[in-house]
Amino acid sequence: MKKIITLIALAATMLTASAKDYTDRLQVEVSTGMSASQTATISLNKQDNGKYSFALKNFILSSGNEQLGIGTIQIDDVEAVDLNGITTLSDQRNITIQNGDTDSPSGIWIGPTLGNVPVQLIAEQRDESLYAVLNIDMESTINQTIKVVFGNGGYQIPNSDFEEFHKEGTIDEPNHWHSFASCTGKMASMVSTTPHTFISDIVRPGTSGRHSVMVTSTKILGFVANGTITTGRMNAGSISATNPANHAKIDMGDNEKDGNNDPFYARMNGNPEAISLWVKFKQGTPQPDFPYATISAAITDGSYYQDPEDKPYTNVMSRAKNDKIESKGFEWQHIIIPFEEVDKNVDGKAILVTLSTNATPGKGSIDTLYIDDLSLVYNQDITVSSIAVKGNTLTVEDNMAYTGADNENYSIDDITVDTKAAKVIKRIEKTGGGVKAYITVASDDLKTFKSYTIDLPKGTTGIAGINTNSTTTTIYNLQGQRVDKMQPRQTYIVKQNGKVIKVINL
What we know:
The protein is built from 3 helices and 39 strands.
């Protein structure tokens, strides 16, 4: 008995001790049209009851030089679903925003004065990173709704607003983007000391940002070297501009880092429909036969890939390309390029985006391309056509009910959702009066989501109804979902040889 008590205490300590602070970019969008980006910290604490405590500390609304202190947004007892190595958290409730633990930049923290504020939260924790979307409804108090997006979750390319730069040698390159200053190849020494990227304060209309990136072409040994920027790594391998030895490349197996200690690849966890960006393009000397700048993007499985290709590649999930970007009087242009599916069986894990001052290698003149506010576009349609329990269709409402037989078993597989949403997150739990099912439908990037509940009175959870006579080992999380393996510091139900065991995987 003493050993059991000790093990339980140790398990509780491990769960409570799993608190972690995440620091990342925080994008804030207000219904009035204001948007801002700042650095923020979110604390995520795995409680000893298996639920989570989520805290956005010292939240501040910034607009230009003005700052309004909101406070600390803390949500305790947040439910989570663990599947395929991803912990998805979701919650919807009214909270009171707390005072921050530092001085407010506006003199007071206004959060506690707002009373109960409706909030919606959805978040993903994976690979030691956190991505969160928080909707804050302040319509009844300050006539505003606020959307907060923390991190990028592998759904966007970091620093695609080109606000942050680092030194690659003596040359400014945008963080997470690369040009010739960090290139490889036998011609690298010839091109790496000539700047092709510059910090610019010329920004696109309507942006809240202060910078864009300026990319220029140069002349080397009398030949035009197109200005190029990529999420991968440039390779200068030939004196001939058209030789595919000159390319942008990506390989998640490459452990090298740039001058900002970032890898030469961008992770991708989503399946975007399009890529959006703002450009401003001018040719130093108009070239009637070669008048276009270009952008190309490829989502791959993360293994080696290069653009332009030197052979057929089978590791590409989808591509997007526009090789006819005109100057149009050197005015800002908003361009959206759709992705086209190449192979739906490829698991997209990385994205290679490349922009160049000319669509044809070695052509053009001394040209200039400004790039600002690039983003990946996802389908935000989360329309739900129907929800059914064991084949019985319900009237779709925020709160639904289905009454089956007494002690009827339910699992998440009994809940079916017909929806256009890219993601459906289902959770089921035993309650004092039976069972409740929780459903969240979301866009692929989580920026649009909605939750539903189903009351299942007098029911029991699906785990209890699994055949225990099977000799096969089966593992379920506490939401009744069957999983392939156990993640650290999570609690599971394991069934083997007719026995049911509750396991805390330390």
